[in-house]
Structures are given as structure tokens and as C-alpha cells.
Amino acid sequence: MNNHWGRIGEKLNHFFFWCLEKHPGKLIGFSIGFTTALAIIIFGFWQTILLAGLSYIGYTVGSWWDEGEFPIWLTKLLHTITLKGK
What's this model's pTM, rounded to 2 decimal places? Predict the structure, then answer.
């Protein structure tokens, strides 16, 4: 019985990589749609929108950090916040 599940896992793995190679846009679109629908069911519409928005902001700030290209307004804001803490 254990061998049976191993073969199913191999077939699913092969199918996933085939989809990723032949239809990457469809696979990514399906994954985003499925994840969004699941989040709406679990958290609700507005909480999901908030989660997506804050995730996008975090991604954008993180990419600025990685590239070392903080906008001037953000650098001033962080400097002001840091000075108020002291």
C-alpha cells in the first residue's frame, strides 16, 4: 500500500513540473486565485484585502531594502521615528 502512495506522489510531482514548464501562467494564476478564495473563506473579504495590501507594501519596502534604494521620504520618516524613540 505504501508503494501505491509513492507512485501517486511521483505522478503528481511529474504533473506539477509539466504544468510549470508548459503552462506557467495558468499554474500561477490558478494558485493565486485559489489562495485568494481560500483566504476570503477563512478570514473574510476585508481582512483578505488588508492582508494583501500590507503584504504588497512589505514586499515593496523589502525590495527597496535589498537594492539599497530607499526613497528620500521613507528615509526621513524612519529617521524621525527613530529620533522620537530616544
Answer: 0.60
